[in-house]
Amino acid sequence: MDQLIQALTQASLWIQLPLVLLVVLPIAGVVAVVLLRIIDAVGVGFSAAFRGRAEKEVR
Question: Nearest to residue 23, comparing CAs of 2, 3, 4?
Fold first, then answer.
């Protein structure tokens, strides 16, 4: 593993850039989708909680 990392750090930018784009960009996209799903789920939970509280106050 160390040899691979050493080879990548010593490689030309023209080799590093495509590797980063092919590996890191898809991983970042997946992480972004997961974070959005979590944020949406939390938002739905808060909306339901506040909606229930508002209906109790109106009655």
Answer: 4
Query: Between 2-10 and 13-58, two packed helices, what is the crossing angle to 10 degrees?
Result: 110
Distance CA 18, CA 13 (A): 9
Amino acid sitting at position 50:
F
Q: Which residues lie below 8 Å from residue 16, measured CB to CB, with a gap of 6+?
A: 8
Q: Look at residue 48 in the predicted model and tell me its pLDDT.
A: 84
